Amino acid sequence: MEYKTFETERLYIRPTNQDDAAFIFELMNTEKWLQHIGDRNIKSVEDAAAYIQSKMTPQLTKLGYGNYTLITKNDQQKVGTCGLYDREGLEGIDIGFAFLPEYEKQGLAYEAAETIKNAAFTDFGMNLIQAITTKDNMASQRLLEKLGLQVSGTTTLPDDTEELLVYKIEKQS
């Protein structure tokens, strides 16, 4: 099956696949990923490949969207991920993003997330998307607000104790 890909001024946005295992390994072991998203126990490139196969690919196959790898147009570097996630313990679809530290604060997260948010409403027919973030992740909160999402409450995911902020945005008719 052919899945949707997207382009922005500076990025190619395509579904994450096995070729991204080394990049996913690096990203999931950055300090901010571990602090704000959580340890997924990805200790090798092989673990990352298995994670892509068991966690990312099934949702893409089932729903037609999922985790996207972000690649710079100017030098073909894999810089981050953005996606729409059907998360356990959360009703509805969640937008999320993560970047390698050296690519933060360049506007790339907004560029990618705005594209994925718009795709949720136009290409994938959603009427509502949500996001979750830790209470101390101010950069994530600012980006969600810039995207038009607003705090709607808090939640705690299964097998976790940390209370997370829940943001929502509805499709504008």
UniProtKB/TrEMBL annotation:
Keyword entries, A-Z: Acyltransferase, Transferase
PROSITE patterns cross-referenced by the UniProt entry: GNAT
Record-annotated N-acetyltransferase domain positions: 11-170
Enzyme Commission numbers on file: 2.3.-.-
A GO term for molecular function: acyltransferase activity
InterPro entries registered for this protein in UniProt: Acyl_CoA_acyltransferase, GNAT_dom, N-acetyltransferase
PANTHER family in the record: GNAT FAMILY, PUTATIVE (AFU_ORTHOLOGUE AFUA_3G00765)-RELATED-RELATED, N-ACETYLTRANSFERASE DOMAIN-CONTAINING PROTEIN
Protein name as it appears in the record: GNAT family N-acetyltransferase
Source organism per UniProt: Aquimarina rubra
